[in-house]
Amino acid sequence: MYFPVYRARRLRKSETLRRMVRETKVSVDDFIYPLFVTHGRKIRKEISSMPGIAQLSVDWAVREAEETFRLGVPAVILFGLPKKKDLRGSEAYARSGIIQQAIRAIKDKLPELVVITDVCLCEYTSHGHCGVVVKGQVDNDATLELLAKMSVSHAEAGADMVAPSDMMDGRVQAIRQALDRRGFENIPIMAYAAKHASGFYGPFREAAESTPQFGDRRSYQMDPSNAREALREVALDVQEGADIIMVKPALPYLDIIRAVREEFNLPVGAYNVSGEYSMIKAAAQRGWLDEERVMMEVLTGIKRAGADLILTYFAKDAARLLAKK
Q1: Considering the domain boundaries, does residue 5 fall inside one?
Q2: What's the DSSP call for residue 160?
Q3: In terms of pTM, does the model score above 0.90?
Q4: Residue burial 158-182, b: 16+ Cβ < 10 Å; e: rest
Q5: Tally of structural domains, the chain
Q6: CATH number for the domain harbouring residue 50
């Protein structure tokens, strides 16, 4: 009907034209880079299932943060590997905990870098679950007190933002109230608002050494089949005081990212998780696909779906590639 009045290919004939009319643009400002921090010095232990990613001692984490910031990435998110685990994850909220040490060291060197901390107990508990276990079950309300305590300890160490990933009911409100009581009313909360019980977390559990010692996390992480429930979960976190709302994982949940973007007027984050990263790396190593092209296609898809912020292990690689353009 419209041919030949409208020819879509007219605006595709050169890279300059394509760039001029591009609807979705990925920027280095969109990225948050995850770091795994462990005790010791001069430690860089490569993670076998995540090529290019490593467990880092604090000194190495500072170096990695410096490189990340030089590339223009504005933020990192920290995950800790404790010296010792126990039933209540006590290193998670200890002043000398690994994350608390890392925050102080990074902020001392890079005051302008935004340091975000993951708030969850799974890396710190001997049973590997995200909260206090009572009679074989994660006790929601008993866990809230520890998550609030952990968040305050991160703020005291100098964190710029806390990001609860545990999926306990009511944890955003508990954290917000605890931060406010201690004079940290200006510390924002990025809530893992719709975090699904996903098979894509496998490589992360190697990196963070956080595999549950019994059962699984389906009683607190979301059923991957439920879209309407995801919106209810996000709404609860918004009501409780979240400043940024996040969907995790990203690629299998682009519809959720879009729905959240349309429903809520807050910044939306998406976590391009370990399994999504690793499958691209593995396929690229076998020569099955073009890593750089697919990386940017994935990040563009997440942004196009509605994410304002993307937590991604590709942050440094993508920043280097964007700098060439």
Answers
A1: no
A2: S
A3: yes
A4: ebbbbbbbbbbeebbbbbbebbeee
A5: 1
A6: 3.20.20.70
| Location of structure tokens 């976190």 | 237
Give Cα 139 distance to the centre of its chain: 24
Burial class (CB in 10 A: 0-12, 13-18, 19+), 68: buried
Quick: pLDDT tens for 183-224.
Answer: 999 999 999 999 999 999 999 888 888 888 877 788 889 999
User: 177 in a domain, yes or no?
Assistant: yes
315 lies in some domain = yes
pLDDT tens for the chain, residues 1 to 325:
566 788 889 999 999 999 999 999 999 999 999 999 999 999 999 999 999 999 999 999 999 999 999 999 999 999 999 999 999 999 999 999 999 999 999 999 999 999 999 999 999 999 988 889 998 899 999 999 999 999 999 999 999 999 999 999 999 999 999 999 999 999 999 999 999 999 999 998 888 888 888 777 888 899 999 999 999 999 999 999 999 999 999 999 999 999 999 999 999 999 999 999 999 999 999 999 999 999 999 999 999 999 999 999 999 999 999 998 7
Range of the domain at 143: 24-324
Query: Can you tell me the distance from the alpha carbon of 23 to that of 281, in angstroms, rounded to the nearest whole number?
Result: 27
State in Å, rounded, how far the first CA of the chain is from the last one.
Answer: 38
Q: Which residues pair with 105 in a beta bridge?
A: none
Q: Residue 3 corresponds to which amino acid?
A: F
Spatial separation of the C-alpha atoms in residues 177 and 116, rounded to whole Å: 19
Q: How far is it, in rounded angstroms, from Cα 259 to Cα 255? A: 6
Quick check: is 301 in a domain?
A: yes
Tell me which residues are annotated as active site: 195, 248
Strand extents, DSSP E, the chain: 31-38, 44-46, 54-57, 75-81, 114-119, 132-134, 137-139, 161-164, 190-195, 244-248, 268-272, 309-312
